[in-house]
Amino acid sequence: INWEECAVELAGSKSPSTETFKFLLRLSVANRLDALHVGKWQTEGENLINECPDDRNAREERARLLYSNLTSCEQLKEATWLLELAVWKTKIDESTSLHGQDGEERNQCRINCGVQQILPIVVSFLSPKWESNPSDDDN
Asked: Nearest CA to 106 among 118, 88, 131?
């Protein structure tokens, strides 16, 4: 079942009620939100669902925003792994050119590569905006 398609289609219809729609929307994204393992994103997704309006057009827009943001978060999470590996590899290459290759040094490179300082800064610039009305940002 394509839950995203179903939710968007249901959002624009006369039924279900807003509460039922919220329940279905919450069910359709539960696994994806849990898989993110980022509390802030999970909370923002829940807030977007909880604040879902009664208006059918607004509900449809809200559902699209939720799914779009989830996709952005999933892609960002994948990208952070790639960034971490790239930073680690750079540190290993630097260490290898200076000291030769040693298994213990490779582990130290991962610990001391600085990714813990870099990732939060990068993520803060790339995180999706979870506002309920994204058109406010256009002004």
From this structure: 88
Q: Of 74, 72, 28, 18, nearest to 50 (Cα)?
A: 18
- Enter the pTM of the model: 0.72
> Which phi and psi (to 5°) does residue 128 adopt?
-70, 155
- How far, in Å, CA of 74 to CA of 93, rounded? 29
17 vs 78: CA distance, rounded Å:
36
Q: Can you read off the two tokens belonging to residue 55?
A: 């208006």
What lies within 8 Å, CB to CB, of 25 at 6+ separation is 7, 49, 52, 63, 66
Distance (Å, rounded) from C-alpha 78 to C-alpha 25?
A: 24
pLDDT in tens, 77-102: 888 888 888 888 888 787 776 666 66
